[in-house]
């Protein structure tokens, strides 16, 4: 300690923490201290004889018991089973998530069926491809799934290929002509003012007496 004055708070705190951490008074014989705080070195981490870890995080081990015994007592003696709020419970929770695969990447069938048709996928594709629209990249990735995973020799139908070419043309125009608008590219713009109420017919109204 920089300040060895016994009346100084840092001196008192240092002596107290030494007792709690090592279980040894600061003025104990040197041989006792060496034996109790003997450490093994593993890549910068120090593993104490009682099972404590130094260098990463240190859980207070007042009873100097090994970790497996602490784990056993907490789960099967005090019966705070499995998902308790202590750190052993969080360890079990992580093992449970790994075993169930709750946070594992979804299989390609589910990603192609749900994720690749979701707004989240469109947003993430736009973020990963700045300066262009995500539509062409999305069409390309979906074609890769059809070609490489499903084994289709022709991943694009004729209409899908024409649509893909149109999306590539849009990206070229957007990147070379800043501020370009419809009809050259489709911006999905909405007018400043709309009719009130706004009527959007799905198809032309059927004349009277001509119902299907």
Notes on the protein architecture:
The chain is 46% helix and 5% strand. By secondary structure, the chain is mainly α. It has a 3-stranded antiparallel β-sheet with strand order 1-2-3, with no helix packed on it. α6 packs across α7 (134-149) and α7 packs antiparallel against α8. The longest helix has 19 residues, at 158-176. The chain is elongated.
Tags for this model:
single chain; mainly alpha; 3 strands; elongated; three-stranded antiparallel sheet; 212 residues
Note the gap between the termini.
94 Å
Kindly provide the radius of gyration, computed on alpha-carbon positions and rounded to a whole number of angstroms.
34 Å
Figure out the total of helices. Answer: 8
In percent, how much strand structure appears in the residues? under 5%
Q: What's the rounded overall pLDDT mean? A: 75
Low-confidence stretches: 1-26, 28-33, 35-42
How much helix is in the residues?
40-55%
- The string of secondary-structure elements, in order, is HHEEEHHHHHH
Global structural class: mainly alpha
| Number of E-state strands | 3
Shape: elongated
Main pleated-sheet profile:
3 strands, antiparallel
Biggest sheet: strand arrangement: 1-2-3
Topology:
Layout: H1 9-22, H2 30-36, E1 39-42, E2 45-48, E3 53-54, H3 67-77, H4 87-100, H5 108-113, H6 119-128, H7 134-149, H8 158-176
Antiparallel strand pairs: 1-2, 2-3
């Amino acid at each position: 300690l920089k300040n060895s004055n016994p009346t100084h708070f840092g001196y008192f705190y240092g002596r107290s923490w030494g007792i709690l951490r090592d279980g040894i008074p600061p003025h104990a014989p040197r041989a006792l201290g060496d034996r109790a705080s003997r450490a093994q070195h593993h890549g910068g981490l120090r593993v104490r004889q009682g099972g404590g870890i130094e260098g990463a995080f240190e859980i207070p081990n007042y009873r100097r018991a090994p970790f497996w015994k602490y784990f056993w007592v907490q789960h099967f003696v005090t019966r705070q089973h499995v998902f308790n709020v202590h750190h052993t419970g969080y360890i079990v929770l992580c093992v449970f998530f790994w075993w169930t695969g709750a946070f594992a990447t979804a299989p390609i069938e589910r990603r192609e069926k749900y994720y690749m048709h979701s707004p989240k996928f469109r947003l993430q594709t736009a973020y990963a491809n700045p300066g262009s629209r995500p539509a062409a990249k999305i069409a390309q990735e979906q074609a890769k799934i059809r070609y490489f995973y499903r084994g289709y020799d022709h991943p694009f139908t004729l209409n899908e290929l024409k649509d893909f070419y149109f999306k590539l043309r849009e990206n070229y125009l957007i990147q070379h002509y800043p501020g370009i608008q419809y009809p050259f590219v489709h911006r999905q713009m909405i007018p400043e003012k709309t009719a009130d109420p706004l009527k959007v017919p799905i198809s032309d109204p059927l004349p009277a007496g001509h119902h299907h």
